[in-house]
Design the sequence.
């Protein structure tokens, strides 16, 4: 995925505020052997780009001064209540350096699983993205997980899935976290309704004097 950036001369809170007023978003590119580079991006173009999944988890081609640079999105700072990107960070991509990236998980097949089809269960997607370590050329666009084999009383963990070659899961707290859980649907039993004979109802309504 490609985007266009421009070198930014001014820095500081005041300069960034003035830049946002003109419809530009301040940013920075860091990493590698080069010095950090201040950039600015057209906000409208950026706003449309961040809505695409590929912008967040794949290598991006940044055009700057007529040259293309491979970068990876590292951070987005959003306005508290406005639809505005206030600042954006990118990391330079070097072919021989392993990178830690967050990759979305795409689930499929749950409707065909025994858990859903015949065992009256709900399938809960606990994790929607994984933190992975790999070389830039090996970064997957997403991780596909087939749920067609899920059964009642089971769950799916990270170690239950096969990651692409040379791609490793980065544990943050949990070595083998749950990706998907299966919960049985509990059907509510209606309380019995007493049937009253109309004659008895009339007798009860008269009362005693």
Sequence:
């Amino acid at each position: 995925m490609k985007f266009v950036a421009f070198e930014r001369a001014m820095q500081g809170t005041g300069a960034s505020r003035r830049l946002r007023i003109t419809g530009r978003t301040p940013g920075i590119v860091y990493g590698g052997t080069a010095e950090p580079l201040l950039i600015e991006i057209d906000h409208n173009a950026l706003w449309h780009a961040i809505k695409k999944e590929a912008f967040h988890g794949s290598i991006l081609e940044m055009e700057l001064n007529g040259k293309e640079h491979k970068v990876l999105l590292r951070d987005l700072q959003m306005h508290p209540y406005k639809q505005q990107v206030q600042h954006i960070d990118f990391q330079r991509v070097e072919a021989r350096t392993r990178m830690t990236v967050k990759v979305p998980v795409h689930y499929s097949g749950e409707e065909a699983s025994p858990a859903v089809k015949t065992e009256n269960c709900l399938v809960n997607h606990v994790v929607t993205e994984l933190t992975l370590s790999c070389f830039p050329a090996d970064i997957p666009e997403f991780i596909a997980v087939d749920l067609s084999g899920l059964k009642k009383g089971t769950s799916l963990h990270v170690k239950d899935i096969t990651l692409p070659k040379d791609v490793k899961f980065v544990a943050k707290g949990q070595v083998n976290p749950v990706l998907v859980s299966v919960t049985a649907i509990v059907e509510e039993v209606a309380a019995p309704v007493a049937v009253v004979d109309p004659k008895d109802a009339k007798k009860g309504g008269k009362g005693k004097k």
Remarks:
- DSSP finds five helices and 13 strands in the chain.
- The longest strand covers residues 67-78.
- The two ends are 89 Å apart (CA to CA).
